[in-house]
């Protein structure tokens, strides 16, 4: 078991970095590109069922991984058995701390596909051990956790980080940048982001007044380790296998889940940073335990350089549709949305996506890597000759991470890029939970009009025995 002493000792070793020598006249970057282009990365998978199984398959397709270890709190569950059977030589663990302690020297990277609340401790331990980290979005559940993860990334500069918002390696990423560089996307004043599909809505009674009744813990499940640093809850199937996403104590709701696939390029290329005001405009079915059935949240961002102030309006809920501009046309549906036990995405009146309003043009786009189009169609035809050529992605999101591990590329969604967006989601979730408007000072990173909300930036203190994960 990892103790406080050896955890901090390993962190000190990792932060010292690695000396590169003996390469002759060739510089380190050129050497890495040659040697790293086809080298397999020794990897450990943490979370191997459901979404974990999907990303393991995506990593396998790159041909750039050697699977060293599999780790999951329920290695006997139906959802983990296929992966275990596929990699019989990989060492198996239920507790990630034991895995790092026993075979930490046998792998160089981890891929983390576990509930939102567990991303932080696993990631922090991996970085302290000098391991490269691929972690599913949102990268953290609380504002403080995202802040500490960004600080750790700066402390361990040799560690490669990548957040799993795959659109950052697909067409929309390169199109947005090319259109911005060409002056097509400029002077954006408002963005409407929407997720109005039933995939993430539970249908529970919003008059809830207590947590679910305790149920027997499945015999193969390590329920205590499942919690990581959050306070213990009695087992219920309403928390497990994706249902955790609906609860404030465990997940980030539709905003954290889908916001990363809809707002990632908007946030990065418009240099939005952190908002100065967060306002829950509409919350249907608000309660103290799980996310509302409908939410409309306004985020207000100030001017950045020559860019004007910009508002983001977030709409979620099946019946909570945003205003649709004239000439919108049909709503696209990204073909690369992964399957989920929470329900499939079916084409409806309006599908997950965004509408971007600038002073001169209006754009619409779907989620993930789907490209933008100019609306109405007549305006798109007028602009067609002015649109620049968009470069193709040199690698998908998984290959990008692995090639970065070997020095060939740089990751497109590292912690320093995704971290502030994760914090935006945390602020939005706090506004949902407390149902009140916040004023936020991005310089001091404090909420200035609500002391209780300000205290929530750090979240509930970690469970006993998990305190050291919060120390850099």
Automatic annotation (TrEMBL):
Domain Gfo/Idh/MocA-like oxidoreductase N-terminal intervals = 42-161
Q: Which residues form the Gfo/Idh/MocA-like oxidoreductase bacterial type C-terminal domain?
A: 213-271
Any one Pfam family here would be GFO_IDH_MocA
Name the domain of life.
Bacteria
GO MF, one term, reads: nucleotide binding
Output the InterPro entries linked to this UniProt entry. Answer: Gfo/Idh/MocA-like_OxRdtase_N (IPR000683), Gfo/Idh/MocA_oxidrdct_glycsds (IPR050463), Gfo/Idh/MocA_OxRdtase_bact_C (IPR043906), NAD(P)-bd_dom_sf (IPR036291), TAT_signal (IPR006311), TAT_signal_bac_arc (IPR019546)
Its recorded name reads Gfo/Idh/MocA-like oxidoreductase N-terminal domain-containing protein
């Amino acid at each position: 078991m990892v103790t406080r002493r050896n955890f901090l000792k390993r962190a000190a070793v990792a932060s010292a970095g690695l000396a590169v020598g003996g390469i002759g006249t060739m510089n380190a970057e050129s050497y890495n590109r040659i040697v790293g282009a086809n080298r397999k990365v020794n990897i450990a998978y943490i979370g191997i069922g459901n979404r974990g199984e999907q990303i393991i398959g995506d990593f396998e397709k790159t041909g750039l991984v050697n699977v060293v270890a599999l780790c999951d709190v329920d290695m006997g569950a139906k959802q983990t058995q296929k992966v275990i059977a596929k990699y019989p030589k990989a060492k198996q663990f239920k507790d990630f701390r034991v895995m790092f302690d026993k075979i930490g020297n046998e792998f160089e990277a981890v891929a983390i596909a576990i509930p939102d609340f567990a991303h932080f401790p696993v990631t922090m331990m991996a970085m302290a051990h000098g391991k490269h980290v691929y972690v599913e979005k949102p990268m953290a559940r609380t504002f403080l956790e995202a802040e500490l993860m960004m600080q750790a990334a700066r402390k361990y500069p040799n560690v490669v980080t990548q957040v799993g918002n795959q659109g950052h390696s697909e067409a929309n990423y390169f199109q947005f940048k090319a259109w911005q560089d060409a002056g097509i996307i400029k002077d954006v004043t408002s963005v409407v982001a929407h997720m109005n599909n039933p995939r993430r809505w539970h249908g529970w009674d919003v008059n809830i007044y207590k947590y679910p009744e305790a149920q027997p813990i499945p015999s193969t499940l390590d329920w205590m380790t499942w919690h990581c640093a959050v306070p213990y809850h009695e087992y219920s199937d309403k928390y497990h296998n994706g249902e955790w996403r609906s609860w404030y104590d465990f997940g980030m709701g539709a905003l954290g889940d889908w916001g990363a696939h809809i707002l990632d390029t908007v946030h990065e290329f418009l240099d939005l940073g952190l908002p100065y005001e967060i306002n829950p405009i509409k919350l249907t079915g608000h309660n103290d335990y799980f996310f509302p059935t409908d939410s409309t949240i306004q985020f207000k961002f100030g001017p950045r350089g020559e860019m004007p102030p910009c508002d983001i309006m977030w709409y979620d809920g099946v019946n909570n549709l945003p205003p649709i501009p004239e000439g919108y046309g049909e709503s696209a549906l990204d073909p690369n949305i992964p399957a989920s036990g929470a329900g499939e995405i079916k084409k409806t009146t309006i599908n997950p996506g965004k509408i971007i309003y600038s002073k001169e043009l209006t754009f619409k786009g779907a989620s993930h890597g789907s490209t933008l189009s100019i609306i109405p169609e007549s305006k798109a035809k007028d602009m067609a000759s002015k649109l620049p050529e968009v470069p193709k992605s040199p690698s998908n999101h998984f290959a990008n991470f692995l090639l970065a591990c070997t020095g060939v590329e740089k990751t497109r969604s590292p912690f320093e890029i995704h971290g502030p967006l994760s914090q935006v989601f945390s602020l939005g979730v706090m506004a949902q939970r407390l149902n009140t408007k916040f004023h936020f000072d991005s310089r001091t990173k404090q909420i200035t009009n609500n002391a209780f909300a300000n205290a929530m930036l750090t979240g509930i203190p970690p469970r006993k025995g998990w305190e050291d994960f919060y120390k850099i």
